[in-house]
Amino acid sequence: MMNEEIRTSNESGLRPVMLIGGKGGVGKTTCSAAIAARLASRGSRTLLITSDLTPSLSDILEQEIGDTIKSVSKNLDAYEISQEAIAQRWKSKFGPDFYDILAHLIDVDALDAESRVMLLDYIGSAPSLREETMLDIIMDLAENRGYERIVWDTAPAGETLNLLGMPKNIRKHLRAGAKVYEGLDKIGKQLIGKRSIAGIMDEWTVLSEKISRFIHEKSTFVVVANPEALVVNQTRRLIQILLDYQLTVHGLIINRIIELTDSPSLETLRETQTRYRDELKKMARERPVVSLPLSLCGIRGLDQLQPVGELLVAGLLL
Description:
The protein has helices at about 30-40, 55-60, 85-95, 95-105, 115-125, 125-145, 155-165, 165-180, 180-190, 195-220, 230-245, 265-285, 300-315; strands at about 15-20, 45-50, 70-75, 75-80, 150-155, 220-225, 250-255, 290-295. By secondary structure, the protein is an alpha/beta fold.
C-alpha cells in the first residue's frame, strides 16, 4: 500500500535541483529539456544535464552537447555527463586518497607509472564509487557554478535508485572498512608516516553525509509515466521507493495521452489509457499532475520545446 506520508517541494519552496525520472522510454529527456528551456526563458540561469548512458539530449536540442558544459541559449547550458568524465573526476578527487591507502598495504612506489594508473582505474571502476562521484559532480554544479536551477534527466528508474541509495551504502561500507584496517593503520603510520586509513575514511564519510543532506534538502523528483500497464506498475513502485528514501516527490507527468481518435481501435486504446491515467492521478494524490498529448512527430529544437515547457512549468507549479 502506498505510504501515507506526502512530501512535496512546496514544503520549503522550490528546490534548486529537479530530477526527472521514470521507466526508460517514457519521454524523460524531452520533458527535461522542455522544462529547462522554459525556466531559462523566464530568466533563471539553468543547467540541463543527463546521466543516461545512451543520451539523446543532443538530438532533442538539435545541437551537439557532449561531456563538457555547453551554452545552448541565453540562461541555458547543457551537459551530457559521460562515464569517462566521471572516471576522470574520481581520479582527480579521490585517486590520491586511494594511493595513500594502498601505500599502507603494498609498495605502490615500486610499481611503474602504467601499473599505478591501471590499478587506480580498476579500483575506480567499482559501481558504488562511480555513483558517489556522480552525485559529487551534481552537488558541485549546484553549489559552485552559479546555476539557479538544475534539471537532471536521470537514467532509467532502476539505475537512478541505485544512485540515490549510494550515500547510505558508502557510509555503511566505510564504517566496516575502518574496523578492518584499524590494525594495519597503526602499523602503516609507524612504517610509512602517511595519512591514516581511518582519517581518510572519516573524510569520505563526511562527504557522503554531505551528499545525502544535499539530495534530501536541495532536490526534488518529478516522475514521468505513460498510461500503460507496465509503466503504471513500475511508477507505483518508484514513487513508493522514493518515499521510503524520504525523498521529495514534487509531481507527475503523464505523457503520450491519446486525445482524439478516428478509428475503433484507437478509441479502445484511449479508453484503456483513461483507466491507467486515473490510476496514475490517484498515485499522485495532491501533488500536481500534467498530462501531455501523444505527439506523432518527435519534438525537436528550442522552438518546439518552449510550448511544451510552458505547459509543464505552469502545471507543475515550478
